[in-house]
Amino acid sequence: MSTNREKESPAFRGGAAFLLSQLGAHVAQQFADRVAELDLTPAQAGLLRMLVQAPGRSQRELAEMLGMPPSRFVPFADGMQERGLIERRRNPDDRRVYSLTLTDKGMELLARLGTVAKAHEEQVCQALAPDEHQQLIGLLRRIADQQQLTPGVHGGYRRLRSG
Amino acid sequence: MSTNREKESPAFRGGAAFLLSQLGAHVAQQFADRVAELDLTPAQAGLLRMLVQAPGRSQRELAEMLGMPPSRFVPFADGMQERGLIERRRNPDDRRVYSLTLTDKGMELLARLGTVAKAHEEQVCQALAPDEHQQLIGLLRRIADQQQLTPGVHGGYRRLRSG
DNA sequence: GATAATGATTACAGATCTGAACGATTGTCA
DNA sequence: TGACAATCGTTCAGATCTGTAATCATTATC
């Protein structure tokens, strides 16, 4: 039952899981190329998006969402602060935590990021008719929900863990 | 035109490009966890698949397909050879190149890998009815073709390049 | 008011990546 | 034939990246 020529041929192209992984890596790379023109990495772009969705989060929460250890988040946020994109503000209620927010310059860049993301979306889905495009989004959201992925948060800014 | 509450809300969950990237990372991580039980990394699993699809390729070709520099491919192949999964054979016509092939042990492991991949596919697409599952595969293949991705080859075993 | 817990940060050691070089072999061309 | 360039596999050193654990300030517990 392992040599059916008909059953095995789809395996050469992979099922949905393989295609998602393959396309995901491809799409992520293209996005990285695009945002590089704004001097941003995908993780930096992700932070901008996260800060506008829910401002005032602590660094630990943000690091958790981005899938990076807090120790790595510090120099990561440093760079964005030095560029004037984000602001660290001490929380008056708990002076241990920093509340991170976007600066005006950060919001400006986020707007340009939106333009880039829109162009990227269209370039990726060129092959699809508008109704198919919506169909795909629907299917992907159903999977994302069932897999309990946080909407709008991309935890993939880490290397694949083997354990 | 940038503050339509209706138009902006889907952006919070992301379009198809974001979902593909998010789900791709998630699915790739789950696959990594699964194949780890076979003492394999995703890249190693990919090499096994590639060798059965088209045996006798040179290391340089394989490295190219996997998206890693030849210098990194060498220790990568070393490990698999030491485990007796692949074989390096000098090409009689061109003694510079090695032709890599699967050993019996490698093919055996590849069979177990197929079982793992099948279970993974079902787990990923739990949320979808059988016809939706096929629909999704169809849409993803159309995109993959249009984006000129090599069928069955996952070039994402590299870090995201910023340039 | 002493002790434990938490957030941010730093220090450090280990893994990992990259690009340039090297030896061996083959193609090219006078 | 013989010099020269190109290719394949490989190695190596420098740079980069990554996670763990220790440190400091602040807050919760009791």
UniProtKB/TrEMBL annotation, chains A, B:
- Domain (HTH marR-type): give its ranges: 13-145
Q: Which Gene3D superfamilies match?
A: Winged helix-like DNA-binding domain superfamily/Winged helix DNA-binding domain
SMART domains recorded: HTH_MARR
* Superkingdom in the source lineage: Bacteria
PANTHER family reported for this sequence: MARR FAMILY REGULATORY PROTEIN (PTHR33164:SF89), TRANSCRIPTIONAL REGULATOR, MARR FAMILY (PTHR33164)
Q: Which InterPro entries match?
A: HTH_MarR-typ, MarR/SlyA-like, WH-like_DNA-bd_sf, WH_DNA-bd_sf
Question: Which is one Pfam family of this protein?
Answer: MarR_2
**UniProt-recorded name of the protein:** HTH marR-type domain-containing protein
Q: Name the species this protein comes from.
A: Actinoallomurus oryzae
